[in-house]
What does this fold into?
Amino acid sequence: MDMEPSLYSIDSWQYLQEGNENIVFSYIGSSLKYRNFVLRLPKCIPGAPSRENPAEAKASRQKLFYELVVCPLLGKQYLQEKISIPVGSEFLSKLNSEALKVRPATRRHKHIDTNIQQMTLTTNLLRMSGSSGTFSVEIKPKWGFLPTWKHLPPESPKLSNCRFCMHQKLKAIEDGKVPSRFCPLLLFASDPLKKYRAVQQLFETPQNNLRCFLDGIETDPGTASQEVSKEFDSQDEFLLQKMLASVLAQDGVLNRIKALQQDFDLYDVEGIYKMLETMDKSAISEANEQQWKELIQSYLKGLLLSGY
Ligand SMILES: [Zn+2]
It folds into this structure.
């Protein structure tokens, strides 16, 4: 277990960003080994009564799922390195106090959860080690196929409209939001032109499906696009979109994700619901570690036998 002392110095950590559940710091300490790592910590409402530690339990379940399910299915080449190390409340309290000085006011009602006993370091994808000019793109590709479950009624809109587009239409009706133009079916399509069209749609209506970062700082996709054209001395205002579509067409990750989505969602939620109705619900429980292992092993063995 790594006990690099600088990992426990608050001077080694710089506030990077946060969401509703987690807060992220980047490592700026003296160890070269960790120069490209970030620290992701769960947050909680201070003073809220907690007899157990739900954040820690959730983090532990997520870690297990990552190691047992995501890694073997997706392949390590697509995943971040994760290192768990023990941590105490004193360090977390100090880091919390320091972070409060720079965190946005709208987020300060939640603090770092100081009850956790393990903290996780992951590779920083927003800034390459020791260099400036790192450009990163985050895409949430969503669901890449239409269900073909034979028991769906033939008039079901699910057979001809993708899940994401239907959700967008619903949100537009319920909240008056402008629907995204992005359709995941195009992004997951094998036709490179369709992929390019999907990337264009993401730039037209990024919502939270597309985010761009320049040296770790979030940049509007339109501005990012201009910056990339400038960097390459190109007059082509869509250079970034073309580069992204080309990378996605050459790499196999979207095909892999689509195959996994199809294989693990054979029955659609409607089919699963019908099955649930026939089962004894008291006998249903969350899968344990051993069951996950066996499920993934048998799935991968099946793929091997079928020559995938
Ligand atoms: Zn769609």
